Amino acid sequence: MRTDRNQLRFNQALLVILLPLAALLDWPWLVYLLFLLMASQHTPWDLLVALKRLFRIPPSPVEEDPRPHRFARTLGGLFLGLASLALLLGLEGLGYGLALLVALLAFVNLAFGFCLGCFLYLHLRYARALITGR
């Protein structure tokens, strides 16, 4: 299976730059927009892929299982969804806190190559294998 490393880095860079900007300028609409971009991942219209193509960032495919990365992106999208909900309910501290947590984890992955979502995915698979015997 193949993973596009440039797509992963592009997604992470967007989160690292735009989520702190949204919190700093109190722009909840930017958190909502990034949530929509993350939520589009399992559709034929993956908006982050479309943005990467728009900016003419070439693909960098590597032989790697994409499932851990999809799981991590799903978790990031879930947290951005919760952040969006909190912001819609007027809970700015919680909303921006959750959004900044996503930005921090994206930064750690971008800067140091450690993907917490991928780590959790693999450990959940190991736990499942131990429990089910598969």
Description:
This protein is 75% helix and 4% strand. The model has no long low-confidence stretch (mean pLDDT 93). It has 134 residues and is mostly helical. The chain has a two-stranded antiparallel ribbon with strand order 1-2. The protein is built from 6 helices and 2 strands; from the N terminus they run E-H-H-H-E-H-H-H. The longest helix is centred in the middle third of the chain and has 22 residues, at 67-88.
Shape: globular
Instruction: Note the run of SSEs as H and E.
Output: EHHHEHHH
Q: Residue ranges: pLDDT <50 for 5 or more in a row?
A: none
Our estimate of the beta-strand percent is under 5%
Number of helices: 6
Ends distance: 21 Å
| Helix-strand makeup class | mainly alpha
**Percent in helix:** over 70%
Query: Which value, in Å, is the CA radius of gyration?
Result: 15 Å
Let me know the largest β-sheet: 2 strands, antiparallel
How many strands? 2
Mean pLDDT, all residues: 93
Strand order of the largest sheet: 1-2
Quaternary organization: single chain
Furnish the topology, listing elements before pairings.
Elements: E1 2-4, H1 5-25, H2 28-39, H3 47-54, E2 61-63, H4 67-88, H5 92-112, H6 116-132
Antiparallel strand pairs: 1-2
Brief synopsis:
Helix content is 75%, strand content 4%. It is mostly helical and 134 residues long.
